Amino acid sequence: RRWRVERHNWPPVVALHLGLGIASAVLDATLDTGLAWLVPALPAQAAPFRFFAELFINLGSYVVIVALVHAGDYYALYRARREEAAALRSRLAVAQLDVLRAQLQPHFLFNTLNLIAELVHEDPEATDRMVIQLGLLLRRSMESWSAQEVPLRRELEFVEAYLEIMQVRLRDRL
């Protein structure tokens, strides 16, 4: 784990692991071959053959152990990143909802609806324009909520709808 193989450092770390693997395999094979005479039940094999057989088994074991440790570490890292991505998606959804709330501004919406209710009898054409512009404003708000980027043309349509509503609401004061 101290010498983890990663994208930016793999050549020297692989060389280091290869050296450590060979050194430990040679040491273990030397000890096993040298001490084989102490265990009379072991078959009598030629020392060089026994040495190389032990060397390859030990080197293979080292590679498997390093690979398993790396696989476990990378799986834990993968899970942590996946959980972090899920948390970020959740925070993004909350932020998008906050943006939508800010765009709608309930005070503006309620005032506009009250004005529509007042104008419905006095000026039906202005009421009709306000309802259309309010619908357009709400539609643009929903579209911009789901998109990462909004074209300038859409943003200008949003502002124009807002200004037309404010023009009817404020009349000469705007």
Write a brief caption for the model.
This protein is mainly α and 174 residues long.
Helix and strand arrangement:
Elements: H1 10-35, H2 47-104, H3 106-122, H4 124-146, H5 152-170
Essential attributes:
single chain, 174 residues, mainly alpha, 5 helices, rod-shaped
Structure, explained:
There is one protein chain. This protein is an all-alpha fold and 174 residues long. It has helices spanning 10-35, 47-104, 106-122, 124-146, 152-170. Helix 2 packs antiparallel against helix 4, helix 3 runs antiparallel to helix 4 and helix 4 (124-146) packs antiparallel against helix 5 (152-170). The chain is rod-shaped and about 115 Å long. The mean pLDDT is 79.
The fraction of residues in strands falls at under 5%
The number of E-state strands comes to 0
Would you tell me the structural class of the helices and strands? Answer: mainly alpha
Distance between the termini: 68 Å
Task: Indicate the low-confidence ranges by residue numbers.
Answer: none
N-to-C SSE series?
HHHHH
Number of helices: 5
- Which term fits the overall shape? rod-shaped
The radius of gyration over CA amounts to 37 Å
Q: How many strands, what sense, and barrel or not for the largest sheet?
A: none
Helix content: over 70%
What would the average pLDDT be, to the nearest integer?
79
